[in-house]
Amino acid sequence: MKPRTDLLQGTLEMLVLTTLADEPMHGWGICERVQELSEDVLKLNHGSLYPALQRLKRRGWVRSEWRQTENNRRARYYALTAAGRTHLGDEVAQWRRSSQAVERILDLLPGAGE
Amino acid sequence: MIARLRGWFEVLRAIVRGRAQDRELAEEIDFHLERQTAKHRVAGMSEDEAARAAKLDFGRVGRVREEHRDARGARWLMDFLGDLRIGVRLLIRQPGITVTALLALALGVGGNTAMFSVLDGVIMKPLPYGQPDGVVVLWQTNNRGVKQATAAFDVVYWREHSQAFEQIAALRRPMGASLVTSEGPEHVVASHVSGNFFELLRVDAAHGRIFTAAEDAEGAQPVVVLSHRYWTSRFGADPEVVGTEVSINGAPTVIVGVMPGQFRFEFLGEADIWIPLVLTQAQLDQRNFWSERPIGRLAAGVSVQQANDDLTRVTEQLLAEHPTNFFSEGPNVVPLHEEIVGDVKPTLTLLAAAMGLVLLVACVNVANLLLARNASRNRELTLRVAIGASRGRIARQLFAEAAALGSAGALLAVGFGFLLVRGLRLVAVDRLPMLAAVTMDLRVIAYTGALALATVLLFGLAPAWYCARRQATGRVAATTGGAGSRGERRALSSLVGVETALVLVLLVSAGLVLRTYANLSNVDAGFPTASRLAVEIVLPSSSYPTAGDIATFFAQTIEEIERVPGVSSAAATSSLPLSGRGITIRAPAAEGEDPPDPPIAMGWDAVSPGYFDAIGMRILAGRGITDADDASTEPIWIINETLARQQFGERDPIGLFYANTQGNRWRIAGIVSDVAHHGLDVAPRPAMYQPQAQAGFPWPTVEVVVVASTPDPLALTPALRSAVRRVDPLQPIARVRTLDTVRSGSLAEERLRALLFTAFGCTALLLGAIGIHGVVAYGVSQRTREIGVRRALGARAVDIRRLVLRAGLGPVVAGCAVGAAVALFSGQLLSGLLYGVAPNDPVVLAGVAVIIVGVAGVAVTGPMLRALRVDPARTLKRE
């Protein structure tokens, strides 16, 4: 399991950034959306989302502020920064390129089409 | 870029607001769980099930918090700050130990900081000249090996014939001069220097210019360069003053320049102004007139030794070509820096060593306190090791605690050191002119911080580490009673012993230095000092060119002064006893005899009639000087008893004649008693006294000794000033001081040494007492149970008292014994500075031991009383 954490972490951060691309959200909202987006393929502890958010904040891709929710509860909302948006764009392009490559390799594998 | 800034900001937030961030995260998690619970409830779970499921989804909250903290960055720093916080809290919870340790650090480290800045400023800093290493002083040596001035003729000869020097400049000891502006005459301290003086030092003026080499020629336009200090105080730092004219010693003189503020030349004493030293033909002819103290700039690639050899060769050649009764064992070339710091180096080194000992005592104290404190934390540390804290983690914790103590200590030490430097400057700036420039700069403060931390780490962490390691070896059960173990008690006791030994060494040194000072204070200088004043007057040679002019001026002045109410008598001399100043010449042969062999270097003074009475010297044979001894009568000399004994032994010299090659004859008319001249600890020099009216040289600096009949002689000063003005309206008084001041001033260095040593010794004693008290009090608190049991088993009060005393004073007595052995050795190092007391003086040694044991006894009393109050019933109940 261990070697896959990096991949997972990277993926999680990508998903978070993608989620935030539309609108600012609080942690629980992000969590719901990420699971929705990954179609529950990525089974994660909800808790691990928060250190990930903090890491993104430290890199300057995400900022946060405390706001009222629609039912008047205080929650911390996270939003994409300009740098975060740029990074997401780069990252998505990168992912596209490498997943295309991966698909091509998979196509070449004997029996891959079965 | 902005992203990176944002990132740094996050880290900063993590450091500054760590706990607030924890709180925010907790709130965030609460919110999350709430929403998740709600979601599960909507899906049909019961309240309890929903909450449990939400927690399950979330994972371990503790782990999330840790990961979140990691994600904030600067984790190690955060941990360290946390440890630091705990450390500070622990320190606050044990105020007794903390205050004591801080006090020890402030005193020990602060004192060393002050000492370091003084050593740095005085000894290590290069002189503020261009290539200062090449500047040397050119001395002659007298028959006692003492460095002395040389004749103008020789300086010129050296300059012309020696090859080792790029330049040689003559200069004289700064003298009083009269500077007259529109506001009247004013006394200034003037340094007469060759025209190339500033050029030789490779310094430039801040305003205007320095002298040119031609400006010391006879008949050149008189010019003056002002010191920055004098320019600021007298002329309000007005740059326009350059180029204007003032009258100095009666000569209209142009101010050509002002030196920068950092220029100082303390070799012969600081001066207000510099004037070109004009070597007239008359002065060059005076081969016996040794007033020049030349400095030289070594030629490129020439060492001090080579210069010395070259100058020796030139001097031999000089003596062969121009024989003289000039008196020298040969020249002596000394680097200027060594010349300046050489005198104070032993004192400063000694003080630094003493201060180092105080630091050691402080270190031992800190070690003691921390060891005692850590010992009582055994249980806590044990527990932490037992539940899995790594040794590294515990060491980090202890490090943070030491750092908390160390930084607080360093802060106090810097403050204390700062005060100490200021204090030292107040007490000692007369002795050490360079002290004025000593400051605490950043380097010094860094040194303090490092020293304080090193002290705490070395002496705080080591025992702490020892504790932690011992814990790890699994003696969990054995330590329930705290630190009552034998090993720990032995460690604490041996530290007390070491501390005592150090304190004893310091106090013995202080005692020796104090006794030296006391002995010197009681030395008979050969003259009484009570109700006597010395009035220094410097006559400008332009107005008083000959010895006759000077004598006439003083004859009139003394008459005027004696008319002042409150003055019972007055007399003049060319140099004051204990001043160390004046002229030294070679004692000539008595007529018809061979010159003394070995030659005798003797002091020369011109004195007015009545001087011997005024100063209190006794006529031992023949007669003194009377008003009748003037230029028209037979020339006479009065010699002192040391000269009479050295030159004539048992013979009676009265009536013999001295003669020189020019055919002059002086009758020896009397013998007077000796006075101390170079210092109270120096044997009186051979000396002769000439009537002022018959004086051989026109010596311009004269001291008038005034015997007052009023209780406060200094109150006469204004009246004396106007008495002098009645004779010459333009003549200022250089300074007025009591002979008591002159005498005590000659002991300034000894007094300073005694003062500082006593201060150091008392500081160490205080630290030692605190340390002993701390250790004994700690021991008693740890042994309360044992004492209670002993009492219950029938031990009497006297037994308990003995128990505590043995534990407390045993190491003190042992420390005294060790210290005494060390002191016997260290006393030898001091022997050069002692007077009238042996380095192993038993009185000092025994006295100090008694003081230490007495103080230790007092320090032990409190804990002992506490031990006696232990209630056996309560102890047993607790068992």
Structure in words:
- The complex is a heterodimer of chains A (114) and B (879).
- By secondary structure, chain A is α+β, with helices and mostly antiparallel strands.
- Chain A has one domain (4-108): Arc Repressor Mutant, subunit A (Orthogonal Bundle).
- Chain A contains 4 helices and 3 strands, in the order αβααββα.
- Chain A has helices spanning 4-22, 27-37, 49-59, 82-108, and strands spanning 25-26, 62-68, 74-80.
- In chain A, a hairpin with a 5-residue loop joins strand 2 and strand 3 (74-80).
- In chain A, helix 1 crosses helix 4 (82-108).
- By secondary structure, chain B is α+β, with helices and mostly antiparallel strands.
- Chain B has 5 domains: 2-73, no CATH class; 76-130 and 345-483, no CATH class; 132-342, no CATH class; 489-523 and 743-879, no CATH class; 540-730, no CATH class.
- In chain B, 54% of the residues lie in helices and 15% in strands.
- Chain B contains 27 helices and 25 strands.
- In chain B, helix 2 packs across helix 3, helix 13 packs antiparallel against helix 17 (486-521) and helix 18 (547-563) packs across helix 21.
- The longest helix of chain B has 38 residues, at 391-428.
- The model of chain B is unreliable at 474-483 (pLDDT under 50).
- The A-B interface holds A 26-28, 31, 45-48, 50-52, 54-55, 57-61, 63, 66, 73-76, 81-84 and B 2-7, 10-11, 24-25, 27-29, 31-32, 34-36, 57-61, 63-64, 67-68, 70-73.
Q: Which tags fit this structure?
A:
heterodimer; A: 114 residues; alpha+beta; Arc Repressor Mutant, subunit A; 3-stranded antiparallel beta sheet; 4 helices; 3 strands; disordered N terminus; B: 879 residues; 5 domains; 7-stranded mixed beta sheet; 6-stranded mixed barrel; 54% helix
Count of alpha and pi helical runs of chain A: 4
Quickly count the domains of chain A.
1
CATH topology of chain A: Arc Repressor Mutant, subunit A
CATH-defined architecture of chain A: Orthogonal Bundle
CATH homologous superfamily annotation of chain A: Winged helix-like DNA-binding domain superfamily/Winged helix DNA-binding domain
Strand order of the largest sheet of chain A: 1-3-2
| Morphology call of chain B | elongated
- Helicity level of chain A: 55-70%
Query: In oligomeric terms, what are we looking at?
Result: heterodimer
Largest interface: A-B, 28 and 31 residues
- What's the domain count of chain B? 5
Task: Report the principal-axis shape of chain A.
Answer: elongated
The run of helices and strands of chain A is HEHHEEH
CATH class of chain A: Mainly Alpha
